[in-house]
Amino acid sequence: MMCLKKRQRELQLQIERPTRRPITRAGQDYIDNVLKEDPLHFRELYRMYPNIFLKLCNLLREKTSLTDTRYISLEEMVASFLLVVGQNSRYCYTRDTFKRSKFAISENFHKVLQALNQISPSFMATAGPGTPHKIKESTRFYSYFKDCVGAIDGTHIFAMVQKKDAAPFRNRK
Fold first, then answer.
1. Cα distances (angstroms) measured from residue 114 to each of 20, 60, 109
2. Are 83 and 97 a contacting pair, CB within 8 Å?
3. Mind listing the pLDDT tens digit for each residue in 135-160?
4. What values do phi and psi take at 129, rounded to 5?
5. What global pTM score does this model have?
6. Residues whose CB is less than 8 angstroms from the CB of residue 50 and which lie 6 or more positions away in sequence, other chains included
7. Which of 55, 33, 57 has its CA nearest to residue 45?
């Protein structure tokens, strides 16, 4: 009798936990479909063409310890990483796209990030010590770009310019 009352009290205090997401292949099916569709659409979503995406996945598979897990393929991991980084999307959107938990998205994001950091020294060159000739010779650009390193690839960069100088910079990439 005492055990029965104790068990009833435990059941009353028990917290109802949310149900887990079922393990599905929805993310892999999504990647397969997007890879088969229009390459320009794939480039808009993931900032690279499908053939380059597959080469990146093969490179990560060969040069790093990143591999398919039991339920998630490497391609799905890289695609979710690129969606977060390339589109500045939140984990919630990526979770709904690939039908994975936020924890799985976060774990895979960090795995891919570490793998890319691991291979980055062999693919990235440090900038030279000098300022490019085109910038150095131009009085219009040099004052703004004299200490900048790298190239601008056509993405919009948020900048604050005084109102009197703003007109030439409107709608510029």
1. 27, 11, 9
2. yes
3. 677 777 766 666 665 555 555 566 67
4. -70, -25
5. 0.63
6. 35, 39, 42
7. 33
